[in-house]
């Protein structure tokens, strides 16, 4: 049993039903056949060996009875004849006769020294005088003590080669018999297993196709037997699955249609919201832009100190409105993909020092502690966008912290640096921690107090972090404060590029001519007042045709074209600039001015490659850009 257990443990695992059935069928048959063949072969071999031994024993006893008279008479030839006759009759390999002293008298067959040991069986018998074995009255008087008078000894041997050959033949026949029986058993088992395996494989293929969503397939087997019952069960399952899938598909179609309708409704609402913000932003920026121009002109002409305070208050109010519009503009530019990240290697300490100087007065005003825990580290990202993220987070922390302080901490995490803004403020409830990254969401400002922000800072942070590919994490407990963290890759200090110092802006050329195209008369008047203070020639027009007529009357080509993006009709500023450039055959420098914050508008202007200023624009920024474009255009003309 241990041998069989060790044998089966060495066999490879049986995975198919066919192989298992073959083993189940062949193993018992093989064991039974092996036992029967071994038993009958051993019996046959034992019988043959006993017959061999009996033949030698009978021969030696026959010679012991026949030789006494020949030995008494001394007839050696007679002895040899008897030996030859018995050797042939009993198929002996050798026969020898010795006298009482052990002297060899006669022999036939193999000599002892020529016969290998173990190749023959030898039987011996004593040769006695006749009549010395029993008395004549033995039947009546009982046995008598024989008087042994030995004449010599006879030896007869039979060759074991014959029995060995018989054994080989018997074992060969037994092996052939086993092979034939095993082949017949294997063929029968193979036939039965092949049929069963085909049926199971057919059911397996049906189940496989069911697993690949082919619910129309069915098992084609008769329902009789266990396998037939299994096939019928598979077919019932397939029908149930098909009916269930039909019901699910119907529900999915209904849910998809309902979801598509809701999605379409949400998209329309979002588009309507975007159009509303874009239109409202544009319409509000127009008078605000004109107001800014008039304020700038008024400041330049005002000579009374008492009036200057009033002008400063008006300018502060317009600046607050401009802050709101610029935040909306940032959201729109990020949604439009008009802002691109430009990662470089930069030092973190210089950025944090700048933020410290910017926010320390504001924190001190609220009696808050503002600390920066910095490390000497180089980061690899867009420094302007990282600074904008930190600026919004610090401003938010100061705004919503009433006591305690704010900590800006840095911690290395492998090849990343975690920048954290931690405050001891009011905290954020868990159910609102995702909503605060949406625009216009403010938790503690139901009255929309402008001093508490606009609800756009964290929305900008979220969009900037996605643009940079940096994750922003939030940990907060109501009443205990919040921690906003962002992970930024570390950089190489040797790859930091020193900033190129900005050249001082030059003066506007006295003979410069600027063309302004805008459909708002108030803006045209405000720009005229502003350019008059700058002592720059300005041609104003409401449309491209009016601009052409004004320039033709002066017989001059403008140094710069400043055009509003939205103009009456189907014309926009990009088309106006392209038309005037084609009219005068020159690539005239141009500036687009718009109050539109729609993402598609910003993207289209960005793709046109024309500098863009948003209303309300600051006069200083406009003058710097005009100076740069005029100098650049005249340098190109000379070159």
**What structural class is derived from the secondary structure elements?**
alpha/beta
Strand % is 15-25%
Largest sheet: 5 strands, mixed
Per DSSP, the total helix count is 16
Summarize the entry for a quick read.
The protein is of the alpha/beta class.
Describe the structure.
This protein has helices at 2-10, 17-66, 68-73, 76-90, 138-141, 160-211, 225-301, 305-336, 348-365, 383-399, 457-468, 521-534, 544-554, 573-584, 599-608, 619-638; strands spanning 94-99, 104-109, 120-128, 150-159, 344-347, 369-373, 378-381, 405-413, 416-423, 472-477, 481-489, 513-517, 537-541, 560-564, 590-594, 612-614. The chain has 639 residues and is of the alpha/beta class. It has a five-stranded mixed sheet with strand order 6-8-9-11-10, covered by helices on one side. Strands 13-12-14-15-16 form a five-stranded parallel sheet, sandwiched between helices. β14, α14 (573-584) and β15 form a beta-alpha-beta unit. α2 (17-66) packs antiparallel against α6 (160-211), α6 (160-211) crosses α7 and α7 (225-301) crosses α12. The protein is rod-shaped. 24% of the residues are buried. Residues 132-142 and 446-451 have low confidence and may be disordered.
